[in-house]
Amino acid sequence: MNKPPGADGNPPNGPREPRSSRWSDLDRPPLNVTALRRGLVREGGLWSEVDVVQRTGSTNSDLVARAAEGRAVEGAVLVAEEQTAARGRLDRQWTAPARSGLFFSVLLTPSEVPVARWGWLPLLTGVAVAAGLSRAAGVDTALKWPNDVLVTVRGEERKAGGILAERAGDDGVVIGVGVNVSLKEDELPVPTAGSLALAEAVSTDRDPLLRGVLRSLEEWYGKWRAAGGDPGVSGLQEAYAAGCATLGRTVRAELPGERGIVGEAVAVDGDGRLVLATEDGVQEPVGAGDIVHLRPA
Question: BPL/LPL catalytic domain spans which residues (predicted)?
């Protein structure tokens, strides 16, 4: 584990050994918080503050706690260089080397949007993240329902990012994003994972990548909020469908209670649910569960 700079314990006049420093990996420089604030926090914009911490358990947990204590307002962004207790959907754990990706959470309070439409926020974030990464990193991205971000590595779709939304009190939602940026093949948590570097991104500089993703999120959130959360009027439903690699494929939905459905993913409905057409001729919407892309027979 990398340690922060400190006393190296060498004698004052003796030979000096290289110190272990959290900045020692030159391929993974730290984020420039001053530049991020200058580029993102502006009058009339969504982002109200940007904080970067070196290490924490979970940015989502931290930001939910800040909101509960009244120490965060809408547009707060909390970024970690390293997370030790990061969580994905269904409380899955995942870890990544320090400064190897984008690990951040944002606080949103869409008071003018009916709560029934807040379920679109993770999908909206997926659209924004995919678009921001495509522009800033120069990689092809796709979405696996509901909100996994896919990249192509040697002709194979791999998950490079994920999104987790949690309620923060009665009027807020904290959305966490994790994206693998510079992970090498031998650092992947599972063989089916990917990273921007493995997808041959034109840039793995995390500063412009983070700015690009947050600007894209601000743009999509503004459209959706202005439309009262209507996914059709805001263009969100169409954009999600256009970028969703799940649609048109045969998939297996693994549902709570150990129930499963196999069918063709034919649509994402107005509530953000994935609609499966089964062999029985039934169209069944899926609102929660794991989706497995099945290979053609």
Answer: 36-225
